[in-house]
Write a structure and sequence with these properties.
9-stranded mixed β-sheet, Rossmann fold, 18 strands, binds xanthosine-5'-monophosphate, alpha/beta, globular
Length: 511
């Protein structure tokens, strides 16, 4: 769709954990960037302005080490190899990669050759190293352009062929001048113009949807989350009332959230929204169920049933709109990770329910870009900056059986915590924070009487990718105020604890 109109840079993924970070850095600099497998046919790369190689866990000499085709270097397109990607370049072009006696890991003071196009306006500074192997002999035609105490070729280049490589990771924050290096690569070496911006993305996408859909009808599952909201809004701007959104309220949302979603989209934006209040159905299916995975499965299946039943009433719909975003696309393409929890993304509906096609206007965007588009479209910042919320909702934050009473209790406790975090001005710096209703009961004393109440746990984490997370070091007075208020305002709670476990070993949610 929209991206065809833009200049393009490609990240070839050699299995590094930072492929998405590299792509985001490039996009932040105004250049559209895609992630492709290292096996990509070089012919498919001919139209791009630049190519970046990621790092990776392998050694170029290992059996089955991922290596790209040598033809990539013959395209005349600038290449920047990073870490393992640098070693791939050296190895394939006739240099030597050896195993170091002293592996370099962490922040490393690095010096640069001043006249290197990659290091314009970059001075001696800290770079992030993480490698066992190193380039011991440069390929013919290359010179070293940076060095550190243990790495004689922390970077190498062949200016004539526009081939560049860094042993360090310019994409991570610890590399102090990494963004300047990407800027140099994109603008000085690749000659990019920088035509990627969210304002034009929104306009182009709306026009493309209008052209594709014409006067046909689109159905969308709206959850109130950022992705489905922004996707629905783009389609709404394109085709107005020919979009119908179904908002399944499973009764497991946070306090007042269902009303807020309805208010914003129905009243303020005049969208065609059907809110299905299906809490009773969900509660009766969940009655007596305590196993976390079963809870998740039941909610996922019930969601699809409710959605299907509702959409049948609407008659024929031609397209289904979904809020798929780029990390979903990349992860489902390469992901080998073990299943720790089955993530039923509410809104993630089976594709075979009889549509002519899918409309996925955010397929090319990262989350921060989705937010920028949302703001561009006038969606309130409260919704745009909404923290992630699991599809199965509060059911995975209530340990054990889910009942309407427990949901009500948790909603109150959670609302207090959120309010206090907001009052402390920490809404944006803590990436996810919520209350959990544990299955624990304990003895307490209130007034002169003994209590035997439930324990609420508070969870707050900082993270960039939600794959790993640190527990947030919230100020004690914030925790103290929240605890007091929950005990005083939420009946039945007599103990509040704070979770100080990172992920791993814990997960962010409790179930
Ligand atoms: P965990 O608990 O696995 O969570 O560390 C990682 C992130 O994913 C969110 N999460 C979900 N999101 N459907 C979703 O859309 C789900 O079933 C689900 N379960 C967990 C969780 O809130 C955190 O941000």
């Amino acid at each position: 769709m929209a991206n065809n109109a833009h200049e393009r840079v490609v990240v070839l993924d050699f299995g590094g954990q930072y492929a998405q970070l590299i792509a985001r850095r490039v996009r932040d600099l105004g250049v559209y960037c895609e992630i492709k497998s290292y096996k990509t046919d070089p012919e498919e790369l001919r139209d791009c302005k630049g190519i970046l190689f990621t790092g990776g866990p392998n050694s170029v000499y290992a059996q089955d080490a991922p290596l790209c085709s040598k033809e990539v270097f013959e395209l005349g397109i600038p290449v920047l190899g990073i870490c393992y990607g640098a070693q791939v370049m050296a190895h394939l072009l006739g240099g030597t990669v050896s195993s170091s006696e002293v592996p370099e890991f962490g922040k490393t003071m690095t010096q640069f050759k001043n006249d290197s196009p990659l290091f314009q306006n970059v001075g001696e500074s800290v770079c992030w190293m993480s490698h066992n192997d190193y380039i011991s002999q440069l390929p013919e035609g290359f010179t070293a352009s940076a060095w550190s105490a243990h790495c004689p070729a922390a970077a190498m280049e062949n200016r004539e062929r526009k081939l560049y490589a860094t042993q360090f990771h310019p994409e991570v924050e610890h590399t102090q001048q990494g963004q300047q290096m990407f800027h140099n690569f994109l603008y000085n070496i690749c000659g990019c113009a920088g035509d990627w911006e969210m304002k034009s993305f929104a306009q182009e996408t709306i026009a493309a949807i209008r052209e594709r859909v014409g006067d046909k009808k689109v159905l969308c599952g709206l959850s109130g989350g950022v992705d489905s909201s922004v996707a629905a809004m783009l389609v709404h701007k394109a085709i107005g009332k020919n979009l119908t959104c179904i908002f399944v309220d499973h009764g497991l949302l946070r306090k007042d959230e269902g009303d807020m979603v309805e208010q914003v989209f129905k009243k303020e934006f005049d969208m065609n929204i059907i809110r299905v209040n299906a809490a009773d159905r969900f509660f009766s299916k969940l009655s007596g169920v305590t196993d976390p995975e079963r809870k998740r499965k039941i909610i996922g299946e019930e969601f699809v049933r409710v959605f299907e039943a509702e959409s049948e009433k609407l008659g024929k719909m031609d397209f289904l709109c979904q809020g798929t975003i780029y990390p979903d696309v990349v992860e489902s393409g390469t992901g080998q990770a073990a299943v720790i929890k089955s993530h039923h993304n509410v809104g993630g509906l089976p594709e075979d329910i009889g549509f002519e096609g899918l409309v996925e206007p955010l397929r090319d965007l990262f989350k921060d870009e989705v937010r920028r588009v949302g703001l561009e479209l006038g969606i309130p910042s409260q919704l745009v900056w909404r923290q992630p919320f699991p599809g199965p909702g509060l059911a995975v934050r209530i340990m054990g059986e889910v009942t309407p009473e427990k949901v009500k209790l948790l909603q109150e406790a959670d609302a207090i915590f959120r309010e206090e975090v907001a009052n402390a001005g920490l809404e944006r710096s803590v990436n996810q924070y919520f209350a959990v209703l544990t299955a624990n009961r304990s003895v307490g004393v209130m007034g002169d009487g003994r209590t035997y109440g439930v324990t609420v746990a508070l969870r707050a984490v900082t993270t960039t990718d939600f794959m790993t997370a640190d527990w947030a070091h919230l100020p004690y007075d914030l925790l103290g105020r929240t605890s007091n208020r929950i005990i005083n305002e939420v009946e039945g709670v007599n103990r509040v604890v704070y979770d100080i476990t990172s992920k791993p070993p814990a997960t962010i949610e409790f179930e």
